[in-house]
Structure formats: structure tokens, C-alpha cells
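Hi, here's the filled form for the chain we discussed.

Project: internal
Contact: R.S.
Residues: 510
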Amino acid sequence: MSFLDTLIQHSTQQPQKLALDFLGESAETNQAITYGELETAVQRTMQFLLAHGVQPGDRIGLQLPKCLPFIYLHLATMRLGAISLPLNPAYPLRELAYFLGDAEASLFFASAEHQREIETLHPELPNLRHIFYLDAHHPSQFAELIGESAPAILPAPPTDTDQTAMMVYTSGTTGRPKGAEITHGNLTAQIEALHEAWGWREDDVLLHVLPLFHVHGLTVALHGALNAGATAVLLPKFHPEETLELLEKYPCTLFMAVPTIHRKLLEISHAANYDLSHLRLITSGSDRLPDDVFIGFERTFGHTLLERYGMSETGMNLSNPLHGERRMGSVGLPLPGVEVRVVNPETEHPLPDNEIGEVQIRGAHVCKGYWRQPEKTASAFTAEGWLRTGDLGLRESDGYYTLKGRSKDLIISGGYNIYPPEVELVLAEHPSVFASAVIGCPDATWGERVTAVIILREGYSSTAEDIIEHCRAALASYKVPRQVIFVPEFPLNVLGKVQKVVLRQQVCHS
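And the returned structure, exactly as it came back:
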């Protein structure tokens, strides 16, 4: 049974069960939605979309803040066989124009606060029939917009598992961004694998603090909760102390976040006073989990964080086990139905255990390709259907996998391969280092010089020479940073991951 079919079943079998508890910025914007009410809202949204000419295969752009209308539109779009196109609210106009134009979106739902700027784009987008502006601070506005549409015979959810359900644009660091086509079959395979691996239950309560336009917050967290018939408590924005209060108050059983969020929770001076013993699972993903955060969570909250590994094109691929060793520094074991191998990037021959190579993934959860970019699709997949992830890693003898960074982040200095995470782990042991990012900067002699970019802890000081000496004691000489740069902050994406491409542009000088 597909995710959409399961969701309809929940609305029939448990219509009074709380599905979404949206905690807005004020009491007026708080909304509690049952599964029955969710189905009604989705059906009304489907009728609205049909009235505006939406057909199967149409792309529907969603650039909205985290709100219930986003969820209704996303689900209604997929139910109609159209393609949901979630977009980051932070995209500037130039990027937004590219995404809407490349996808040839038919309808676009945007935030009312950006109406003046977005209106200037409309003449450049001949395929865009309508733009609708929503005010997230007035939840009744969406109900007024869609109105009481005339009853219609609504189509059943698509049965073609290879039909595209949503499209997620991936980074354009190696060319123009690519729209990964995620099918209905991909979504169902992903949800079933995580349901088994993480033991989703109907009585679960998930505190949802992630953005909805990203696969982590949308297809892993939100879809997972709704598929299980559980309750998702949604915060529009992450606030550290409020998050701990809610985790304790509800009480929640599940929490999914990124390392940056986990670190901010640990920075609260009285964090240990919160009782989180009722949580059964706390996951971490979207970036490498630092060892000090892993250890700090165990000491402060008594929870062993479960690290996992995924990407836009696949959703989740590997996970540390729910029951079993959650290994620090490892992304765990392949999820049910997922095949993983490590290959020599040059020959694509599989490597033996404990040798670093490119991680490749195969399974029913992997996207079918990139929107209207057949050459990119062909280069992303091997003839046998393995997705070339671009991630470097190794498989340990007992089946656990460890990532060693992106292949594009690999530093080659003097002919030696240097993996930034290995150096960053050593830097994290220095008492003055709050956070670090290791990059390769152009060097006339060495090809690239290992450069450590560091944020110091508040109240601490250090010198480049001190940092380099610290590294010499733990690393081979060719891995030791030749340059240390202190900065007040890193360029981060919306999930708190360091944007190393931007960082190189900021600090590297030939």
C-alpha cells in the first residue's frame, strides 16, 4: 500500500486521532488537526487545484514558510498525480526564477511578504498560469482562498509507482541545479524501510523542528509520522529552550534534528534539568555528527543519538540500529531493501573492507533521474543501476559504514589524499576549538594546501602555531594544516551544514 493510500486509511479508521499539532508564533496561529480534518483539508485543496486546471504531471511550486497550507498543498498535489515542487523560502529571485522556469511550473504558492518582488518574475515565466500569495500569520486566509469548492469526484491516488510525485532541486556546485524526480514508489520504499528500521508506532509523538521544503523534514519526518498514524507536533522555527520544554511537556517519543540543533540544545546551561527519559529515539543527520556532541548527549540527556545517512536523490540509505550498537562516527548499516557498495572511483571495482572509495547506492528508494537532464542522469548512474553518490567512505568488516567526506572536498596535497573529517576530528579535541572546517586551498608547490578554518570557543584564545602543533601530535605530517584561519562564523545552509564551496571562495587565496 502506498503512503497516500495509508494516509487515507488512517482518516477513515481513526478520524479523531490528532495528526498535526501546529504551534504557531501566537495562540491565534496554533492549530490542532485530526486525521479526519486533514483528509477534508486535502480534499478541498484538491478541488481548488482541479478548478485551476491542474492536470497529472503538472509541477506545483511551493515556496512557503513552515505552515499547514504547505502540507495540504503538497499532499493534494501528489494525490492528483501532479508533482510537488518544494522550494527554500530563502532562495533569492534569480534562483527562484531558474527553478520555476526549469520545472515549467503551472501554479506557484508563495509568501505574501514577497509579493512585490515575485510579481516582477511573472512575465519571464510563460508556463506559470497563477501565483497565489499566502500569509502564514493568518491561517484562515488559506481556507478563504480555497473556499467551499463545488463537490467533485476526486481521483484516487496514482497507482503507477514510477510516476513522479515530487521534485527536489540539488546543489548546483558542479553546474546548474538538477531536479531529482522522486516517484511514488520511491516514497513508499523509503517509508517502509524506515518504518521497519526505526519502529514507528501509532502512539508516537514526533516533535518536528525541521524545514518542510527539505527531504529530511518532509519525506523522512513528516511522511514518516503520517504514514504511521502518529502525531507530529510542528514548530515553525527552532528555538533551543522551547524545544527542550516541548520534548518534556508532551511528552514526545521521537525527535529528529541535525548536529547544529543538537549542539545548541547542549549549550543551554540547565539542559540536564530536562527529563527526556520518555523519548524512545533521537536521530541526527544531514551532516556529520561531531564526537563531542554524540558524547555530550549521552552525558547530558542519557540518550545515544542515532546517526544516519541520506541524500536528496534517495532519502535515507543507512542508519545505526534502533536496537544494537550506535557507533560513534559511523552512519550504520544499510536500511532494509537498500544495497550499498564502496568502489574505486576510477575503475568502479568494489573495494575490500576498510578501504576508502566512493559510496554507491541501489534500491527502490533511489530517484529515477534528473528532470530533463538525460546526460546528468546517465552520468549519475552505472549501467547496473548504482547511483554514484559522490560521497567517500568505507565499510568495516562487520558491515558498518563510515563516511569520509564528499569526493569534491577531498584534498590532494603533494600527491597524498587527505580526508577533511579526519583532520576535523583532531581539531575538535583542542580545548579552544568550538568548530572547524578543513578545506584545500590552491598552492603552487603542493597543488593544494590543507587549510583549517576555525571558530574559537567563547572566552578562549589560540594561535595558528598552537593549532598546528596540536595536529602534529596526532596526524601524519602531510595531513597537518599548513594554514590556520580564524573566523567568527561559517557560511551555513538552512540545515546548519557548512557550505565549503562558499568557504573556499571566502578564505582561499592562491
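Let me know if anything looks off before we file it.
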